[in-house]
Design goal:
The complex is a heterodimer of chains A (331) and B (296). By secondary structure, chain A is an alpha/beta fold. Helix content of chain A is 34%, strand content 22%. In chain A, the strands form three sheets. Chain A has an eight-stranded parallel barrel, surrounded by six helices. In chain A, strands 9-10-11 form a three-stranded antiparallel sheet, with no helix packed on it. Chain A has a two-stranded antiparallel ribbon with strand order 12-13. Chain B is built from nine helices and eleven strands.
Chain lengths: 331, 296
């Protein structure tokens, strides 16, 4: 099972590579990738240095070109694909059919992984991308239960990569417009969700308010931990009750089901978090490397160590973790 | 300009559905999309029931399209999907790539629904080559982007090979999840949801703690809090060469709303219709979807 780790910049890539990543994924410095945040991603000079570093350590490189181009900027995606092919990376992670069509025709040797933003949740959808663009792998949206992932590994025409750890997207990726409805920018169009530039905080006496384009997302009492106002994790009113109507501020952690993920035939585990710090990457990658190695050595004796859990809980959003949709009761 | 009535996004009981379409048959909509697109557990009508209903509506002069589920996770759902795709009588609106796979592999022409991600002319071109006859633009795109996509399609020489449909009225379908938010609101597990969404024929409002209508909960689907309304944009759409305006079914005043759109298309006046201040239209003007650009 391959451990696929995020790299938002060179220090994070170094952290991922030196702490045990099998592959790193990263984006160019523009809106062609789904973490188009200021201060993140790789310009040309950083790219050369980073690719050399990863290659020296025998770590694979995937380039995320996984947003949906619109006509006025189509050429940027085309350029990104050409550049990734020139760099000889191990794969590109792509969501848009037009971009995949271009990549498959122009660079038949370039491996394409279907991005989670491509939103394929069943083997017929995967077959479409495989038949038309010869994709080698697909990253599966965080909507399937473990049983469903297991069935899909048996019927899928390509290898499957699943999210193992990190921020929890609760909607089918690639099919969520909530962010653009509130802020005008979305993962599909702009590579961002609940963008920082739309966030405002206001302290009124004992209460801290978080807003997104002026819509009240949450209100925190003094003793409450205030989280980033991701719109699906706010407290809202439904039927007269105020609660986390969509989801609590929580992170995905699948360490406890690592053996099952391996047994059902998942080929790669993805760590989310290109926007996170190098220290975070180091901590998370190290735990997952140890866990995978321990599992490989003694599968029968595998047990989630409490030190691992503590280390991961400490860096998790809202310091809570969940199995998300992998666990049926969560749904 | 043709008018279409999109699939019913809410969960209505059998009688409500049949009564609804009996009235709709008398209205001037040209195209009617039928079928359950949100949740596989909503089975008051079977695929055969929808097909039978389709034949009745066809007999009253409507173009009938069968719409597929949007989020397919289980083999049983794919089985249902194949039945819809291979119905033999009606064109199919594919709302998931699984449907595009089945239809294109068997060379059956199809319509791409609003959750097939078409954001550029290259994707449009690729799908046209694979049998797509009409597309419903993703709801978050603007007039400006649509105009560019259509210009590019013209350069590619494919502009005569497909129709364009725009979601023009109703609560916008914005997201799908594994989780059922209606069941969650009632503290019910999804596996024992008791089909509680049937109690909410127009979904459940989700408000901020300042009583702003933010979203509408509709089972595993999240919709806009406000109603999207592009009625006043009909002349603008006509000038762009849009073929179809889609009205999304609501449980109240549906015939009135259809008549307003019909009146707008048959009258030659470029009248700026009054839009309720509760409605939204931001997406069309390349703004946040929730905004109402007439109020600015």
């Amino acid at each position: 099972m391959e451990l696929v780790c995020p790299a938002g910049n060179f220090p994070s890539m170094k952290a991922a590579v030196t702490h045990g990543a099998d592959a790193v994924y990263l984006g160019f410095k523009d809106e062609t990738n789904a973490r188009n945040f200021s201060g993140l991603n790789f310009n040309d000079s950083k790219l050369d240095k980073s690719l050399a570093f990863a290659r020296d350590h025998n770590v694979k490189i995937f380039i995320a070109i996984n947003t949906y181009p619109q006509p006025s900027t189509w050429h940027k995606w085309q350029y990104a694909i050409d550049k990734a092919a020139d760099l000889g990376v191990n794969a590109v992670i792509v969501a848009d059919m037009g971009v995949m069509d271009y990549a498959a025709n122009k660079h038949p040797g370039l491996h394409i992984h279907l991005s989670v933003q491509g939103s394929a949740t069943n083997h017929e959808a995967l077959s479409f991308y495989h038949r038309n663009f010869n994709i080698k792998r697909a990253v599966i949206p965080r909507v399937l239960s473990l049983t469903q992932v297991s069935k899909l590994t048996q019927t899928s025409p390509v290898d499957l990569e699943v999210f193992a750890f990190g921020s929890l997207c609760i909607m089918a990726e690639g099919r969520c417009h909530l962010s653009s409805y509130i802020t005008g920018e979305s993962p599909n169009m702009s590579g961002v969700c609940s963008p920082a530039k739309s966030v405002s905080w206001k302290n009124t006496g004992d209460v801290l308010e978080s807003r997104l384009n002026n819509v009240l997302i949450d209100r925190y009492a003094e003793d409450e931990h205030a989280g980033y106002p991701t719109l699906c994790k706010g407290r809202f009113e439904v039927n007269g009750n105020t609660y986390h109507a969509l989801e609590e501020p929580t992170s995905l952690n699948t360490l406890s089901v690592l053996p099952q993920l391996h047994e059902i035939g998942v080929k790669a585990l993805k760590i989310e978090g290109r926007q996170r710090s190098p220290a975070y990457i180091a901590q998370v990658v190290q735990v997952w490397r140890e866990a995978i190695d321990q599992y490989k050595q003694q599968p029968e004796q595998f047990k989630e160590r409490s030190a691992w859990k503590q280390a991961l809980d400490k860096v998790s959003e809202g310091t809570q973790t969940t199995l998300g949709a992998y666990s049926r009761p969560w749904q | 300009m043709k008018l279409s009535l999109g699939p019913v996004l809410y969960f209505w009981d059998r009688n409500t559905v049949f009564d609804f379409y009996e009235k709709i048959a008398e209205t001037p909509v040209d195209i009617i999309y039928l079928g359950e697109t949100v949740c596989a557990k909503r089975r008051y009508l079977s695929t055969s029931d929808w097909i039978e209903l389709g034949h009745k509506l066809k007999a009253s002069g409507k173009e009938v399209i069968l719409s597929t589920l949007t989020l397919l996770e289980a083999e049983s759902e794919l089985g249902q999907l194949r039945k819809v795709c291979q119905n033999g009588d009606f064109l199919v609106e594919a709302n998931d790539m699984s449907a595009v796979q089945i239809l294109s592999e068997q060379q059956i022409p199809f319509i791409a629904g609003p959750f097939i991600n078409i954001y550029n002319a290259q994707t449009l071109h690729f799908l046209v080559k694979n049998g797509m006859k009409r597309w419903v633009m993703p709801v978050e795109l603007s007039r400006h982007t649509l105009e560019q996509i259509l210009q590019e399609a013209k350069k590619l020489g494919i502009d005569d090979e497909f129709e364009t449909e725009v979601f023009s009225y109703g609560h916008l379908p914005l997201a799908f999840s594994a989780r059922c938010f209606t069941a969650r609101a009632y503290n019910l597990p999804k596996d024992n949801c008791q089909l509680i969404c049937a109690d909410h024929p127009e979904g459940m409002p989700l408000q901020s703690r300042e009583s702003d209508k933010v979203f509408t909960i509709n089972g595993i689907q999240t919709m806009s809090g406000s109603c999207y309304n592009l009625l006043s944009q009909l002349p603008s759409m006509r000038s762009l060469g849009i073929d179809v305006m889609r009205i999304s079914p609501q449980s109240k005043n549906m015939e009135d709303i259809i008549h307003q759109f019909h009146h707008a298309r048959v009258s030659d006046v470029d009248n700026n219709h009054d839009v309720s201040s509760d409605d939204c239209n931001g997406y069309w003007f390349q703004r946040a979807g929730m905004e109402n650009c007439y109020l600015k």
